[in-house]
Structures are given as C-alpha cells and as structure tokens.
Design a protein that fits this description.
It is built from 11 helices and 8 strands. By secondary structure, it is α/β, with parallel strands linked by helices. The chain folds into 2 domains: about 190 residues, 2-enoyl-CoA Hydratase, Chain A, domain 1 (Alpha-Beta Complex), CATH 3.90.226.10; about 50 residues, Lyase 2-enoyl-coa Hydratase, Chain  A, domain 2. Strands 1-2-3-5-8 form a 5-stranded parallel sheet, sandwiched between helices. α1 packs parallel to α3, α4 crosses α5 and α5 packs across α6. It starts with a strand and ends in a 9-residue tail after the last helix.
Length: about 250
C-alpha cells in the first residue's frame, strides 16, 4: 500500500492465481481494511505472473470424492461472494488490470471492478460451462449489465476465447495498452482516479450499483440525499471555488 493508491495482488502465479479458500479470505480481509484506510483514494486489482486469474482451483475438487464436492464448492463460493461483495461495495474507485488469460472467476472479479485496463494481448474465456457448472461471483448480474444479456449468453454457450479488442468494443474493458506499457498505464490511470473527489465518487458508485433494484422515484430521492451529503464535503467546497477561480481543482478526498 502506497497511499493514496493501494494494490490487491493475486499472488499464486504458478497456479494461474486460482482461488483457494485462503486466497479468497485474504481478498475479503483486504477489502475490509481498505474501506477504513482514510489515506487510500484508489485501489488496483491485478494478478502476478503470466496471467490475471483462472478462477477456482479445479484440482482442489478433483482430489476430493464426488460426494464431498458440493460442500467444498459451497464453502469456496461463499468465501468468493463475501470477497466480491466487499470489493464492489468499496466507496473508492477500483481499477482492474488484466493480462495473459482471464477465465471464470477472474472475469467475475473484473466485473466487480469499476473500470478495467487490459494488455492488448489479453485473452478471456467464460470457463464455467466448459466444465459443466454454472457461474458465480456475481457474473450473471454484472456481465449482462456490462456487455448485454445476449452477448453474455453467447459467450456462455460457446465458451469461446475472446480478445481484448472484443472486450473493449463490448465495454468490458475501458482501456487497452501494449503489454510493455501496462505497468506505466496502470500507474497513470490509478493516479487519475486517486486525484478525484473520493467521497463523491463513492456516492456515485453506490447509486450506480443500487440503481437497478428500486423504483425510479426511490432512486431520485437517493440521488438527492447523496447530493446533499456530497455538497458538504471539503472536495465540493474546493471544486466550487476552483470553478469560480477558473483553475483545476485540487481534491483532498475529504
């Protein structure tokens, strides 16, 4: 953690950064900690090694008798959903950085990020249907909202590999960068996110995530409440002064 930017790194490179119970518990704990770090204003989620993330560790299930697999999977998916929820609810900008191969739960993890940067060489695959199981990590909620229900169903049904260029065209990825420039571009975007009005961005994120689950009238009231809260912040005061003085604002995240 180097305030104002914190990194969450999936660090099982020899195994494609696959999910284990321990890794998912650590991911959830990291999100909880970052929610209370006053000096952190943006979060980067990335994977170490050659790939971003292959999703769950399939070998873990193959090593167990068939009748034990449902309980093992239930434990893993519960941990994953706790981690995904805490990450998605962070009232900070979250940048996902994809490279190499992204499969299954790795896609779900990117879906929980606010914005995504990918190396031009990145490849993606749903993965779940390829081993005869259904999706998790909120992927059936986030992906249809990002790329559309029909595209999501196509990728589930065919389980085909798709490219970073396709992912950008569909809106799953915001920016592409040559692999050699990925680290530099990550730092640039993270700095931009961290320089924003953190509390206002967090309130906007809450509104965007919650917007589809309530009536239009209720959402309008939530917008009004958030706006009143935001205008009382130091960043709003700075933004208004900067506008009047015709200069760029210098937000503090407060």
């Amino acid at each position: 953690m180097r305030p104002p930017i914190a990194e969450i790194v999936l660090d099982r490179p020899a195994d494609g950064n696959t999910f284990t119970p321990e890794l998912l518990s650590e991911l959830a704990a990291a999100a909880v900690r970052l929610a209370t770090e006053a000096n952190v204003r943006a979060v980067v989620v990335r994977g170490s090694g050659k790939n971003f993330c292959f999703g769950a560790n399939i070998d873990m299930f193959l090593e167990e008798p068939a009748d034990r697999r449902p309980a093992l999977l239930r434990d893993l998916v519960t941990r994953f959903h706790v981690a995904i929820t805490r990450l998605a609810r962070l009232e900070l900008p979250v940048l996902g950085v994809a490279h190499g191969m992204v499969v299954g739960g790795g896609l779900a993890l990117l879906g929980a990020c606010d914005v995504v940067l990918a190396a031009e060489s990145t490849r993606f695959r749903m993965g779940w249907s390829g081993i005869g199981i259904t999706m998790d990590g909120g992927a059936t909620w986030t992906l249809p909202r990002i790329i559309g229900a029909r595209r999501t169903l196509e990728l589930i049904s065919t389980n085909r590999i798709f490219t970073a260029a396709e992912a950008e065209r569909w809106g799953l990825v915001n920016w592409l960068a040559p692999e050699a420039d990925l680290e530099k571009r990550t730092a640039e975007i993270a700095r931009t996110l961290a320089a924003g009005p953190t509390r206002a961005l967090g309130l906007c994120k809450r509104l965007v995530i919650g917007g589809g689950s309530q009536s239009f009238e209720t959402h309008l009231e939530d917008e009004a409440v958030a706006l009143v809260e935001a205008v009382g912040t130091a960043d709003a005061d700075e933004g208004l002064r900067a506008f009047r003085e015709r200069r760029p604002p210098r937000f503090s995240g407060r």
